[in-house]
Design brief:
The complex is a heterodimer of chains A (114) and B (112).
Chain A lengths: L3 E4 L2 E4 L5 E7 L6 E7 L6 E7 L5 E2 L8 E7 L2 E6 L8 E8 L5 E3 L3 E5 L1
Parallel strand pairs in A: 2-11
Antiparallel strand pairs in A: 1-3, 3-8, 4-5, 4-9, 5-6, 7-8, 9-10, 9-11
Chain B lengths: L3 E3 L4 E4 L4 E7 L4 E9 L6 E6 L3 E5 L2 E6 L4 E6 L8 E9 L7 E2 L3 E6 L1
The chains are: A mainly beta (114), B mainly beta (112).
């Protein structure tokens, strides 16, 4: 079964609103989680590394004020897309590593901004 | 810059054949190697990982690692149409805080 759960799976919102996506590790603690974005037929793009108890580390070109990341506990990280616009429509996927090193992905959240 | 290269494909094989997926990486300090399968519209699913030189088998899947050549491969025996997906190679360097570098993926199509 799934070891990383992501919610919601689908979200449709109006332009200018904010959307929060949750990522939970189900049976292990994760001090680090990763957030990716994937456009249709393109490869995964790492957006940021979420760190429990400290600020997230963003990849070059990713706006930290637009994509707010909060790693609230050892099993939960959230990504908030603020003031979403149609160009933010994408497939957002979180991942979390076990201590043994394997990285597991959540189911993904498909965001459509109208 | 750390790079992971994969043939984008598409790789097309008949049902029952062996599919061979290849990956090279640039960072000699890489220590862990992963293969993910991603169906269209879905998130990646971990299918194999390998840390040591040689072969690692799990059911119909065999991962092969050659650190000297900086090469990792995935063999799928008795390919099935349900194996049709994009296969992502991922590499972790030592001390990288679990961050993986992904290849762009190889699209595999298994024809009935």
């Amino acid at each position: 079964g799934a070891v990383v759960s992501q919610h919601p799976s689908w979200v449709i919102c109006k332009s200018g609103t904010s959307v929060k996506i949750e990522c939970r590790s189900l049976d292990f603690q994760a001090t680090t989680m990763f957030w990716y974005r994937q456009f249709p037929k393109q490869s995964l793009m790492l957006m940021a590394t979420s760190n429990e108890g400290s600020k997230a580390t963003y990849e070059q070109g990713v706006e930290k004020d637009k994509f707010l990341i909060n790693h609230a506990s050892l099993t939960l990280s959230t990504l908030t897309v603020t003031s979403a616009h149609p160009e933010d429509s994408s497939f957002y996927i979180c991942s979390a590593p076990r201590l043994t090193g394997e990285l597991f992905f959540g189911e993904g959240s498909r965001l459509t901004v109208l | 810059q750390k790079e992971v290269e994969q043939n984008s494909g598409p790789l097309s094989v008949p049902e029952g054949a062996i599919a061979s997926l290849n990956c090279t990486y640039s960072d000699r300090g890489s220590q862990s190697f992963f293969w993910y399968r991603q169906y269209s519209g879905k998130s990646p699913e971990l299918i194999m990982f390998i840390y040591s030189n040689g072969d690692k088998e799990d059911g119909r899947f065999t991962a092969q690692l050659n650190k000297a050549s900086q090469y990792v491969s995935l063999l799928i025996r008795d390919s099935q149409p349900s194996d049709s997906a994009t296969y992502l190679c991922a590499v972790r360097s030592g001390g990288s805080n679990y961050k993986l570098t992904f290849g762009k993926g190889t699209l595999l199509t298994v024809n009935p």
